[in-house]
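Slide 14.
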Amino acid sequence: MNQSSLLDLVALGEGFTTELKRSGTSGLGREICAFANATGGVILIGVTDGGEIVGVADHNRLRSEVQSIARSAEPPIGIALESVGEVLCVVVPAQHSKPYSFGGKFFIREGASSQQMSCDEIREFFYGEGLIHFDETPCERFSFESDLGDDVWALFCRRAKIPAEMDPVTALRNLHLIDGDGRMTHAGAWLLARDIRKFSVSADVACALFMGIDKVRILDRRGFYGDVYSTMDDAMAWILSKINVEYVIKHVKREERPELPEEALREAVVNALAHRDYRSTANVQIYLFEDRIEIVSPGGLPAGMTEADLGVKSIPRNPLLFGMLHRMDAVEHIGSGIRRIRELCRDYGVAEPEIEVADSWVTTTFRRPAINQQGKKISPRTTGEVTGEVRKLLRICEGEQARREIQLRLGLKGEENFRKLYLLPALNAGLIEMTIPDKPKSCLQKYRLTEKGQALLAELGDDET
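Slide 15: predicted structure.
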């Protein structure tokens, strides 16, 4: 630093990265510690708060005192000292062993001042720096008696490749899903959940299909909130039921080719659930538009990652959960998620996804192709995948009708059979829609054909069902 640089710093005054100190070392440990826990900074000893350069004497003695203070922090803080005229500049570079404490207390830079952190702030700091992983913390809401049922355990054993005869507690402890005090971790609770919202209120996935390219009109809305593994499968099934498919004849056999690579979409959904911040009050959101699919994951990038690192390195925010998903074959290649998605899209002949990073969100956007590799427009899923029951339902849909009215017109007495074989498949395929989608159980709820349903009905014509 030269005299000109010093004068520029003084002219700017105190701020997030600059502290002015008239003389001495009183309170200096607090300031060095605060800068070390932030992005670094510089302390100018020999400058008043008003920006007047008064200087200090005996720089050698002062240097020794400052070095001693920095070394007494826990862990020791590396600093650089430089004399510029009569001013001693204490430079605190960005540190890599956060958090730092001084005198048994933690400090952080806030604006132009250094503040002691409260217990809650310390906890958040540890989470933010990736020093504590939320998935490894105990889930107090999990009950071994009521939440670890035989059916839940049997399903988990199959997925996690656990010998059926092994004691559940022993297996879970060996997998580190139970902590040293015998409490279920959050990762374990999420993987064993019947309804994940019991343990993390916003851990569900919200899916919505929109007409056109904006969020003005919702054609279908679904929410999935089982265990993490089931939620991934359910969300993927929903996506695949909504996107277009091309039928390709190979060796006298018809094969389905979705407009976007299924493996890439699945990898993106897995990433959104495995790397999200489960402390966030937001949920994972999947939006389908006419021209794109957006997969939005709350929490931004994990500590230690930048946007430039995407596709180059991977730092899991939830390493215990991620490791279990790899064991369960939901994750194929550790550390290669984004790179693999890009490669799959290139190999498939579609555009690579766009990834937008913000402080609280990561959004992966797949552009939907309008034509196939042969230059033909891809048609929506149509007759070949629609059951006879759904075709019958479409044929009697006129205007807006209540469930009971549709059921009677079909001559069906059993409500469960009607919902399972007729109503839900038609809804999931986007062929009919609710008139009050925000209140699916409303007594005023009615159903009507979507544009897709009308197109299919026209295609069916007078064909026999």
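Speaker note: The CA atoms of residues 210 and 218 lie 5 Å apart.
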